[in-house]
Amino acid sequence: GWCPLSPTGAQTTQLLVEPPWMPAVLWERVTLTCQGLGATSATTWYKDGQCWGQQGRDRLSVTRSGTYTCDRPGTGRSPPVTVLDDPLVLQVPARALLEGDTVTLRCRG
Predict the structure, then answer these.
(1) Domain ranges of the chain
(2) pTM of the predicted model, to two decimals?
């Protein structure tokens, strides 16, 4: 597929992961949602750094492990979300964590 170039600058495109735990694991039926400026139809998805199908949709149901990012015109490329195919994973909440926060960890298998 053809991929537009992202403007450099502030990264304000967000890639939300559901369920909201990181790292995501394949067997949890992960859904990614791309949030940013510009039309949903202009969303570009990348998997492992390569331009990937599913263009023009803001939601993606993940069926393969890898590192995903999305791009929206106006706000650029999102930070990456990694989806693992591991049978056992230690997870943290998928939100910004600050020093001093109390954090719940999940061991899932």
Answers:
(1) 14-108
(2) 0.82
